[in-house]
Amino acid sequence: MLIIGDGTVLTFDKDSRVISNGGIAIEGEEILDIGDTEELQKKYPEATFKDVQGKIIMPGMINTHMHLYSTFARGMDLKTGQPPKKFVEILEKLWWRLDRTLNEEDIYYSAIYAILDCVKKGATTIFDHHASGNLIDGSLDIITEAVRQSGIRASLAYEISDRDGHEKALEGIRENERFIKKTQREGNSYLRGMIGLHASFTLKNETLSQAASLADELEVPFHIHVAEGIEDFYESKTRGYKGVAYRLDRFHILRPGTLAIHGVHLQEEELEILKNNDSSLVHNPESNMGNAVGFAPIKTALDKGIVVGLGTDGYTSDMFESIKVANLLQKHELHHPQAGWNEVFQMAFKNNREIATRSFDKTLGILKAEAPADIIVVDYYPPTPITSENAYFHILFGISGDMVDTTIVGGNILMEDREISGLDYQRITRRVKEQAEDFWKRF
Ligand SMILES: [Zn+2]
Questions:
Q1: Distances (CA, A) of 270 to 40, 160, 262, 264, 282
Q2: Cα(114) to centroid of ligand 1, in Å?
Q3: pLDDT, average across residues 31-35
Q4: CA angle 151-156-157, nearest 5°?
Q5: C-alpha 48 – ligand 1 centre gap (Å)
Q6: Which homologous superfamily is 61-360 in?
Q7: What is the DSSP track for 50-62?
């Protein structure tokens, strides 16, 4: 048994309790007790004690849309002459070329680097969306190996697409099927599978039908980019639909638990379709701004009761950064200084928890007895008092991912005092850089 104590505990439970001189007793994979440090020590005298010296103890962050495969893009020369000017050119000149170049070692080293970066920045659960057009079969197992070595909780999906031909789309369907059946059989509580789809505009009707049959059979939802760029909307219009959600609804892609990513170009009545199908939307503010695709109708979606989560789209591994940008983006676009406060809190701390809890059948994103011990310690000494009412504002204005010093998932310490546990981080990062240099030559 372990007690992490002498901290300021932010529970994010229904009362959003803030416990000064607080601690958490962990037994096995779960939280056993929460309360005053001295009382916990008296109650459990046999427990090992970790003194966090007044730092913040809070639930690990949840990232509901990530691309581990994007690691080697950082600083890469696209060698294309003209840089991309619009969204689809960014896909064609960068991401689709990158994913087709990935080999087995590229996939593994991209994944392990990005996962450890998530751990370093306090994410304990991630929802990944993977593509590697010339190594589809078995690609999710390569990522699983990195997930297993790191100890993070992950939902994986292979991005099915007809963009490289229908045979590749079928291979993508088979990879999701193989992986999901395997995870269902093995029952590993740290690993989940969803059926990944790239986006409506790169998917044929027959592919959507086949993917929907697989979802029926396996009883799992989809993880799909929806109306990210205006091109996705136009393509659905060309096919005779009033919008992307109409087409996806026609093929039963929008079903309970489906993660519709972005939704920038969804119209109000399409949000109703999401709501009626009990699908979630995931907002990725930095990515939307970076790709200049537009401003997602987050407030409208939340007002309709849609579970809107918050992700990073691989733009960063730092959910604290995503929270800050999401908050400013709402204010900037809606021309209102009060916009975003509640919405971003709702996305990052309530809805991401709901999405993760639904996927993993465990109460994630909250510190309470019997919940999985997914906990982070943040090296933050606030200049002003922290209360239940203002804890979120301390996160928004005072905390960044680089201040996380300890990350625990299911009672396992993945990073302690900023040192990754059980893996040689220096050796891995050196090896990742070598792999990246080799990859850049092949790109
Ligand atoms: Zn994405």
A1: 50, 23, 13, 11, 15
A2: 15
A3: 98
A4: 170
A5: 41
A6: Metal-dependent hydrolases (3.20.20.140)
A7: EE-TT-EEEEPEE
Going from N- to C-terminal start, the domains of the chain cover 2-60+364-420, 61-360
Strands 308-310, 375-378: parallel, antiparallel or unpaired by DSSP? unpaired
The rounded Å distance from CA 225 to ligand 1 centre is: 6
Residue 174 in contact with residue 137, Cβ under 8 Å?
yes
User: Mean pLDDT, to the nearest integer, of 112-136?
Assistant: 98
pLDDT at 301: 98
Task: Give the Å distance between the CA of 167 and the centre of ligand 1.
Answer: 23
Task: Give residue 232 CA to ligand 1 midpoint distance, Å.
Answer: 14
Distance 259 CA to ligand 1 centre (A): 11
CB 103, CB 441: distance < 8 Å? no
Q: Per residue in 254-304, pLDDT tens?
A: 999 999 999 999 999 999 999 999 999 999 999 999 999 999 999 999 999
Interval between CA 282 and ligand 1 midpoint (Å): 10
CA-CA distance, 223 to 58, in Å (whole number)?
A: 28
Residue type, 40: L
Give the Å distance between the CA of 157 and the centre of ligand 1: 12
pLDDT averaged over every residue in the chain? 97
User: For the chain, what is the total number of helices (H) and then of strands (E)?
Assistant: 17, 18
Collapsed DSSP state (helix, strand, coil) of residue 260: strand
69 in Cβ contact with 129 (< 8 Å): no
Tell me the CA–centroid distance for residue 402 and ligand 1, in Å.
23
Residue 231 amino acid letter: E
Output the CA 66–ligand 1 centroid distance in Å.
7
Distance, in Å, from the CA atom of 372 to the CA atom of 365, rounded to the nearest integer, reads 9
2-60+364-420: CATH architecture? Roll (2.30)
CA 269 / ligand 1 centre spacing (Å)? 23
Q: What is the C-alpha to C-alpha distance for residues 291 and 55, in angstroms, rounded to an integer?
A: 37
Please give the pLDDT value at position 72. Answer: 98
Least Cα distance to 56 among 122, 107, 106 occurs for 122
Residue 167 — pLDDT band, cuts 50, 70, 90?
very high
pLDDT for 15 equals 85
Query: Phi/psi at 88 (nearest 5 deg)?
Result: -65, -30
Q: How far is the CA of 315 from the centre of ligand 1 (A)?
A: 9
